[in-house]
Amino acid sequence: MSFDIQGKVALVTGANRGIGKQYVETFLEHGAAKVYAAVRNLDSAQPLVAKYGDRVVPVRLDVADNATVKAAAQEASDVDVVINNAGILRTANPLEEKALDTLSEEINVNVAGLLRVAQAFAPILAKNGGGALANLNSVASLKNFAAFATYAASKSAAYSITQGLRDTLKEQGTIVVSVHPGPIATDMASSAGFTEVAEPPTLVTEATLQAFKNGDFHVFPDTMAKQVGAAYQSFAENVIDADFSGE
């Protein structure tokens, strides 16, 4: 399957900054007709509206609040592509007292939030011809880092769910992409201490568009991600992409 953003309608969660904001801009620059900027605070999307006019439509969506997700799905019923970008990172090693709390919070946003959005928008994508869904899963989904171990655990779970979504949504013609960035120049990367090695968000968004066109499942967009992806390639081909259904 292949998907081209030209003339399409997209929705991006966490669209007010970082990689999410860059998705909005990249999609519009590549000819998207409209992008719903899904944010918790509508005012935070106003700079995008000021720049792109009515091609950007702010919509309130908090991935931790299922009522807002369902309301956003009703409002954005014309979407062709959904980007599950919104997420949180908390620093906690496995033995810290706060680790259980941070894990619970990150699972609720990074995993359950991803599922809430997928469940709400999958029927819409089906109705509109299939379209595409991308989940931001990080290299931390494959490699745990002790300083933010709970975040990595949540991303591993999100990656597992993404595999299930790919197999489930294939039947309705929806392309599912799992995006695994390394350190990207965002506020989140700064808080994790990766400022010096962080690379531009455009690497992520452009690579995602290419994956849509190629029908690729995995995206490893930056220097660290490509290193991880190269080492992971054989396992991905022989296990993740293999058909164990027995059919």
TrEMBL record:
SUPFAM superfamilies in UniProt: NAD(P)-binding Rossmann-fold domains (SSF51735)
Sorted UniProt keywords: Oxidoreductase
Superkingdom of the organism of origin: Bacteria
Entry coiled-coil feature ranges: none
Pfam families, sorted: adh_short (PF00106)
Example of a GO MF term: oxidoreductase activity
Domain Ketoreductase: 8-187
PROSITE patterns linked to this entry: ADH_SHORT
Family per similarity comment: Belongs to the short-chain dehydrogenases/reductases (SDR) family.
The name this protein goes by in its record: SDR family oxidoreductase
Taxonomic path: Bacteria, Pseudomonadati, Acidobacteriota, Holophagae, Acanthopleuribacterales
